[in-house]
Design goal:
about 190 residues; alpha/beta; three-stranded antiparallel β-sheet; three-stranded mixed β-sheet; 8 helices; about 30% helix
Length: about 190
């Protein structure tokens, strides 16, 4: 977003605009999922085959957003921000696109083979007893050491179907998985 242009066309100072944009980034927690399982994923996301792949059945897509692979630097929300600042009640949809569409953008087409889907968890601010006390602020998560929130699979619209164990997964982790008695299929990675 062009902060100078936003300040010029609204009654907001550059400092307040930057603080607002930093606060918007605090709205969502993300969980990244993929439609695919291949060597690249095992190497980069499962510590060179020493992790696990959880396979889910999607029961409800409400919280899921497919990732759009694009040049994020060419995606500009300046107009939406100006509209929101000038009339926040009517132009709230502009804020929605900044807060909920922007997390679905990924920087480069080189990752498009991941076929990523993101789970947006954004209701942790609904009450004073929520993880962040019902209030958001720029940098608050980092300041309080926030590591994320817990969502049940059911709330996310997911059902755990099976776990695939990577070929280099340590024995103690495999033993722990089996001891959990998850009542799902656990299989070893196939080549």
């Amino acid at each position: 977003a062009d902060v100078t242009e936003i300040a010029r066309r609204t009654n907001w100072t550059k400092h307040k605009i930057i603080d607002f944009l930093r606060t918007i980034r605090e709205l969502n927690d993300l969980c990244c999922l993929s439609k695919r399982q291949h060597d690249y994923m095992w190497i980069n996301y499962a510590n060179n085959y020493s992790g696990c792949c959880c396979v889910f059945e999607i029961e409800n897509t409400e919280m899921l957003m497919p990732v759009l692979y694009c040049n994020k630097e060419k995606t500009d929300f300046t107009k939406e921000i100006i509209d929101f600042f000038n009339n926040p009640i009517i132009e709230g949809l502009g804020l929605h696109s900044i807060a909920f569409i922007s997390p679905s953008l990924k920087d480069s087409n080189k990752y498009s083979e991941e076929q990523e889907i993101r789970l947006l968890c954004s209701d942790i601010y609904d009450s004073e007893t929520a993880d962040l006390g019902g209030k958001i602020a720029a940098g608050k998560k980092e300041l309080i050491g926030y590591k994320g929130t817990y969502y049940s699979y059911k709330k996310c619209g997911l059902k755990l179907k099976k776990i695939i164990i990577g070929q280099n997964t340590p024995t103690n982790i495999m033993d722990k998985l089996y001891s959990l008695n998850l009542n799902i299929q656990i299989e070893h990675q196939k080549f």
